[in-house]
């Protein structure tokens, strides 16, 4: 299944690692665009309407959770999952409360991506 996916992370290297891991997980036919912070991701998401957003939590200008809140406040229901270096219980609760699909903590594996993403594709 080909999807349009937006990867948002302020680290270019981390965006490349996320994309490489998605490819290793078998999602090699996805069209992937990149945003370097939450504000850019919001603008791209509203303009391009991706099928899925994978977002870091901590980013300049707008954090990942602020991105999710801004999308929902504007009536967007684009699915969003977090790929972040932190995965505390409080963060997971907040992500769930705001409607995030999942939170994958770094370091992640192709299997972790498949475990989080495959149920969404079924």
Structure in words:
This is Two-component system chemotaxis response regulator CheY. The protein has helices spanning 12-24, 38-48, 64-73, 89-98, 110-121; strands spanning 4-8, 31-35, 52-55, 80-84, 103-105. It is an alpha/beta fold and 122 residues long. The protein has one domain: Rossmann fold, CATH 3.40.50.2300. The chain is globular, with a radius of gyration of 13 Å. It starts with a strand and ends with a helix.
Short description:
Pfam families: Response_reg. This protein is of the alpha/beta class and 122 residues long.
Query: Remind me, CATH topology?
Result: Rossmann fold
Shape: globular
- The termini sit apart by 10 Å
Spatial extent as radius of gyration:
13 Å
* CATH C-level: Alpha Beta
Task: Tell me the number of structural domains.
Answer: 1
Structural class per helix/strand content? alpha/beta
- At the fourth level of CATH, the homologous superfamily is Response regulator
Q: Could you give a short account of the major beta sheet?
A: 5 strands, parallel
Examine the secondary-structure arrangement and name the CATH architecture.
Answer: 3-Layer(aba) Sandwich
The helix content, as a percent range, equals 40-55%
The stretches of 5 or more residues where confidence is low (pLDDT under 50) are none
Strand order of the largest sheet: 2-1-3-4-5
Contiguous helical run count: 5
Query: How much is the average pLDDT?
Result: 95
Number of strands: 5
The ordered H/E elements are EHEHEHEHEH
Strand percent estimate: 15-25%
């Amino acid at each position: 299944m080909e999807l349009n996916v937006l990867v948002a992370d302020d680290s270019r290297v981390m965006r490349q690692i996320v994309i490489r891991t998605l490819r290793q997980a078998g999602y090699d036919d996805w069209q992937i665009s990149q945003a370097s912070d939450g504000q850019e991701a919001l603008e791209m998401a509203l303009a391009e309407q991706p099928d899925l957003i994978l977002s870091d939590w901590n980013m300049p200008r707008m954090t990942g959770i602020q991105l999710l809140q801004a999308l929902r406040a504007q009536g967007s229901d684009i699915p969003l999952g977090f790929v972040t270096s932190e995965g505390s219980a409080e963060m997971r609760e907040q992500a769930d409360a705001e409607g995030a699909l999942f939170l994958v903590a770094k370091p992640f594996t192709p299997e972790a991506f498949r475990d989080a993403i495959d149920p969404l594709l079924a």
